[in-house]
């Protein structure tokens, strides 16, 4: 999915001259329609040589390595009360789901299974975890378990690759991506579509019908919108918004960079996301109303997949 550009220097000139791209400053945040983004985010970065989970404040400051382990540590999902973070790691020889305190302490393996478990997502009530696993099928299916790793229930049962399960606001449904092979695709299944399903595995519904791989779907805090990423007709990946029923899809980012992995701020006014090229990915914010963009990271290597910490007052 990652495209290369002929000249990184030329791209840099375009990016920083293009209206809508900003670094963080008071001038950038002074318009009457903007609020200053606040809060804490986790994100992934390879700045220390391998993927680690870091945290920072929404102004790009107070950066801290939370996992600090020589193994791959990936993904992050906050508990609703903001006290814990889920992630997955291969530090035990295969990919397992871990929980740690918000400051990175007390990292424990909660899945403890011989197969690979990925992409954990905390339920809104804090009692369940959705995740993907190859424990029953190599293509990975969607599962739900208790927060201590017990009572694992398989939600999807098919031959398709599935990923990125996330919860509806009321905790009754799961959004996820399914990789579908089109009839005229003779090489590989390059089409990904967003689905929604009840937590008991019933009432499955396909929400997107776009060409290319759409994924990373997240409900807005009020449950009325869904943010996701996917390709445009010219195959550039952008962030999109749609209604919760899949209607009225609009391009949110609309730029020349590759944009992935949206995460809503607790107040629903901002979306954090990954943006860049194969040479450099960074964490950005975009104001949903004004489309103003703010770049939070500039460290070399990959900085991606931001997730906003919940704010209890917004619940």
Please, could you describe this protein's structure?
The chain is mainly beta and 315 residues long. Helices cover 3% and strands 42% of the residues. It has one helix and 24 strands. The chain has one helix at residues 8-17; strands at residues 40-45, 52-57, 64-65, 73-78, 84-89, 96-101, 108-109, 117-122, 128-133, 141-146, 153-154, 162-167, 173-180, 191-198, 205-206, 215-219, 225-231, 237-243, 250-251, 258-264, 270-277, 280-287, 293-295, 303-308. Strands 3-2-1-24 form a four-stranded antiparallel sheet, with no helix packed on it. A hairpin with a 6-residue loop joins β18 and β19. It is globular. The two termini are 36 Å apart.
Number of helices: 1
Q: Could you state the order of secondary-structure elements as H and E? A: HEEEEEEEEEEEEEEEEEEEEEEEE
Number of strands: 24
Alpha-beta classification: mainly beta
Strand order of the largest sheet: 3-2-1-24
What is the helical fraction, as a range of percent?
under 10%
Strand content: 35-45%
Poorly predicted sequence stretches spanning 5 or more consecutive residues: 1-32
> How far apart lie the N and C ends?
36 Å
The major β-sheet equals: 4 strands, antiparallel
Silhouette: globular
What would you report as the Rg, rounded to the nearest angstrom? Answer: 19 Å
Q: What's the average pLDDT?
A: 88
In terms of topology, how is this protein built?
Layout: H1 8-17, E1 40-45, E2 52-57, E3 64-65, E4 73-78, E5 84-89, E6 96-101, E7 108-109, E8 117-122, E9 128-133, E10 141-146, E11 153-154, E12 162-167, E13 173-180, E14 191-198, E15 205-206, E16 215-219, E17 225-231, E18 237-243, E19 250-251, E20 258-264, E21 270-277, E22 280-287, E23 293-295, E24 303-308
Antiparallel strand pairs: 1-2, 1-24, 2-3, 4-5, 5-6, 6-7, 8-9, 9-10, 10-11, 12-13, 13-14, 14-15, 16-17, 17-18, 18-19, 20-21, 21-22, 22-23
